[in-house]
TrEMBL record, chain A:
UniProt KW Nucleus keyword: yes
Bias (Acidic residues) ranges: 236-252
Keyword tRNA processing: yes
Region (Disordered) residue spans: 226-252
Pathway noted in the entry: tRNA modification; 5-methoxycarbonylmethyl-2-thiouridine-tRNA biosynthesis
Localization, UniProt: Cytoplasm; Nucleus
Official protein name in the record: Elongator complex protein 5
Family the entry assigns: Belongs to the ELP5 family.
InterPro entries, alphabetized: Elp5 (IPR019519)
A GO biological-process term: tRNA wobble uridine modification
UniProtKB/TrEMBL annotation, chain B:
Pfam families from the UniProt entry: ELP6
PANTHER family (UniProt xref): ELONGATOR COMPLEX PROTEIN 6
Pathway: tRNA modification; 5-methoxycarbonylmethyl-2-thiouridine-tRNA biosynthesis
A Gene Ontology term for the protein's cellular component: elongator holoenzyme complex
One GO biological process term: tRNA wobble uridine modification
Superkingdom, taxonomy of origin: Eukaryota
Entry's family note: Belongs to the ELP6 family.
Protein name: Elongator complex protein 6
Length: 252, 259
C-alpha cells in the first residue's frame, strides 16, 4: 500500500494514521503527495504549529502546499484564525478546497481528527468525510484510535535528510548475529563421561538400597524388624515434670 | 530551586530551553515541591511568570518560596509575577475557561506589570519569555469543568505561551486511583490528553510499598524531544526525598539511608 502511494498508482481513498504526535508523520504524507505526485495538498493543523511544520519542510517547494492553521485558535476564542473546529462542514470545506479553478486531484490532510471529534459529533464528521471523498482524491487523518481494522499492514520506511523515502523490505531484516561457535564443554576432560554398552548394562542392573523391589518392600513393610524402638528418658533434676499433666510444657 | 533537579533536566536559570510544555502528575503523594521549584526557577531566570494558584493561598506560596530564596511579594511588585489567587476568585464552570485563558493571555503578553514599575535606569524592567504555572488542573475538574474543556484550555495555553510567545508552561495534575468517585476517571483522561500535548512529563508517585522516612516517592521523567533528525522518548526513573530546603534525587535503591 505504501509503495502504491509512493508510485502514485492507487485509486485514492482514506488513509488513517494512528500514532503519537509526531511531526515526521505529517512530513511523510505531505512529501509523499508532493514529491511523487503532482497534486495540491491542503493541511488542516490542529495539533502542530505551522512553524513546526514549515521548519521540517524547508527544502520542499511549498507552492502546492496550502496550510490552514487552526492550531493557534481552534475554537475562535481570540478570533485570530480563519479555520475553527466549527468550520468542519461540507460546505465550508469544499469552498476552502476549491480555491484553485482547475479540477485536479487534491489531498486533504487533517491533523488531527481527534480534535474535531471532541467538538463535532461523530456522525457529522463521518458524513462530511464520506461526501468529501467523492470530491477529493485522498483524505488523510492523523492520530486517532481505531477500534477495528479492515485492512492492516505494517511497513518499515526510512526518511533521509533530503526527504526521500525508502521503503524497507517488508520482512524487517533482523540483524543476523553471527552464531557464536559453541564450544563443546566435554571436549577436553580428564575423565570418561561416556559408557560402553557393557557398562550401561551393568549400571541398569544395579539395584540401589532405597529402590523398591519385591524383596525389599516385603522386608520393610511386613516385618516390623527385630528391635522395636524405645525412648529412654531420664528426667533431669531441674526438669519441671508434672506427672498429672505430662504435656504441660507443650503450650497447647 | 533544586540544583539536583536542574542537572537532571539539564536546564539552568541562565540557560533553559523555551517552548516547553511540562506536565507534573502526582499519585498517592504530594508533588507541590516541584511547583515551588519551577516557580523559584523561572523567577530567578528573570522570566515573566503567571501563576494560577488554585490550591493554596498566596501567603502559602510566598512562605515556601522565601525558604527557597525568592521573594514573591517583591516579584509581584516589580511586575514579574502575576498571581491569580484561585481560592478568592469564583470561577464559573458553566462559562467555560475562556475567561481564564484571556487572563493568562493578557498577563503573559501584556506589558511588564500593571504598576508599570520602573527600575533605577528609568525604563520599565524587561522580563524574559513568559511562563505559565498552574497548580493544579484537577481543581478545575472538581469545579465541574469537563475534561474536554480543560484540554481546550491547555491547548490554548500551549499555542499562545509556548508557540507564539516562546515561553514555557508547567501544569500540575493530581490523580489518585484509590478514590472511587467519577472525578478520578476524568483526571486519568485529562492526563492522557495532556501527555499527548506536552514535551516533558514528570510522573511523581508515592512508593507502592507505602510510606518511608528516607524515600518520599519516585519520579519518572519522560522527554519527548522533537529534534530535526529524530524524535525519541527518553525515560528516567528517580527516587527522591524532600528536605527542608530542597530535595535530593537518586537512582532506585541508592538512598543514602541504605548504602
Amino acid at each position: 500500500m505504501l509503495l502504491e502511494i509512493l508510485q502514485g498508482n492507487d485509486s485514492g481513498g482514506f488513509l488513517l494514521i494512528k500514532g503519537i504526535r509526531h511531526v515526521w508523520v505529517h512530513l511523510f504524507i505531505i512529501t509523499c503527495a508532493l514529491l511523487f505526485r503532482d497534486e495540491d495538498v491542503h493541511v488542516i493543523l490542529f495539533e502542530v504549529s505551522e512553524q513546526e511544520l514549515k521548519d521540517g519542510l524547508k527544502e520542499i517547494p511549498s507552492q502546492k502546499l496550502h496550510i490552514h492553521n487552526a492550531y493557534e485558535d481552534p475554537l475562535g476564542w481570540t478570533n485570530s484564525t480563519s479555520f475553527t473546529a466549527q468550520h468542519f462542514s461540507l460546505n465550508y470545506l469544499t469552498q476552502m478546497l476549491k480555491l484553485n479553478p482547475q479540477p485536479k486531484a487534491t489531498t486533504l490532510v487533517i491533523d488531527s481528527l481527534s480534535w474535531i471529534l471532541r467538538h463535532v459529533s461523530t456522525t457529522n464528521v463521518c458524513s462530511t468525510l464520506h461526501q468529501l471523498k467523492k470530491e477529493l482524491f485522498w483524505v488523510c487523518f492523523m492520530p486517532i484510535c481505531i477500534r477495528e481494522c479492515i485492512f492492516q499492514q505494517e511497513h518499515s520506511f526510512r526518511i533521509d535528510e533530503d526527504l526521500t523515502i525508502t521503503v524497507l523490505n517488508k520482512t524487517p531484516n533482523i540483524e543476523s548475529v553471527p552464531e557464536e561457535h559453541q564450544m563443546d564443554p566435554t571436549a577436553n576432560l580428564t575423565f570418561n563421561l561416556r559408557l560402553s554398552d557393557k557398562e550401561r548394562e551393568a549400571k541398569e542392573k544395579l539395584l540401589l538400597p532405597f529402590m523398591f523391589s519385591k524383596d525389599n518392600t516385603e522386608k520393610l513393610l511386613l516385618h516390623s524388624g527385630s528391635g522395636s524402638g524405645r525412648i529412654l528418658y531420664e528426667p533431669d533434676a531441674s526438669d519441671d515434670y508434672d506427672q498429672e499433666d505430662p504435656d504441660d510444657d507443650l503450650d497447647v | 530551586m533544586f540544583a539536583e533537579l536542574n542537572s537532571i533536566l539539564n536546564t539552568f536559570p541562565d540557560k533553559f530551553s523555551q517552548e516547553e510544555f511540562i506536565i507534573i502528575s502526582e499519585r498517592r503523594c504530594d508533588a507541590s515541591f516541584l511547583i515551588h521549584h519551577f516557580l523559584s526557577f523561572y523567577l530567578r531566570a528573570r522570566c515573566k511568570v503567571c501563576f494560577l494558584g488554585l490550591v493554596q493561598s498566596f501567603s502559602h506560596y510566598n512562605a515556601v518560596s522565601q525558604r527557597l530564596g525568592v521573594n514573591l511579594v517583591q516579584a509581584k511588585e516589580k511586575g514579574q509575577l502575576v498571581f491569580l489567587e484561585g481560592l478568592q476568585e469564583s470561577l464559573d464552570p458553566t462559562k467555560g475557561l475562556q475567561d481564564l485563558f484571556q487572563f493568562v493571555r493578557s498577563s503573559c503578553s501584556g506589558p511588564s506589570g500593571p504598576l508599570g514599575c520602573t527600575d533605577r535606569s528609568g525604563g520599565p524592567e524587561e522580563w524574559g519569555p513568559p511562563v505559565l504555572l498552574v497548580d493544579d488542573l484537577g481543581v478545575l475538574l472538581s469545579l465541574g469543568v469537563s475534561v474536554g474543556t480543560v484540554l481546550d484550555f491547555s491547548h490554548y495555553c500551549r499555542a499562545t505561551v509556548c508557540s507564539r510567545l516562546q515561553g514555557n508552561v508547567v501544569m500540575l495534575l493530581h490523580c489518585d486511583e484509590e478514590e472511587d468517585d467519577g472525578d478520578d476517571e476524568g483526571a486519568e483522561q485529562l492526563l492522557k490528553g495532556l501527555t499527548h500535548q506536552c514535551s516533558l512529563t514528570l510522573h511523581v508517585q508515592g512508593l507502592p510499598t507505602g510510606y518511608c522516612r528516607d524515600i518520599h516517592g519516585q519520579m519518572e521523567v519522560c522527554w519527548r524531544r522533537q529534534q530535526a533528525d529524530e524524535q525519541h522518548t527518553l525515560n528516567k526513573l528517580f527516587q527522591y526525598k524532600v528536605h527542608d530546603k530542597g530535595a535530593s534525587f537518586f537512582a532506585r535503591g541508592t538512598s543514602s539511608a541504605f548504602l
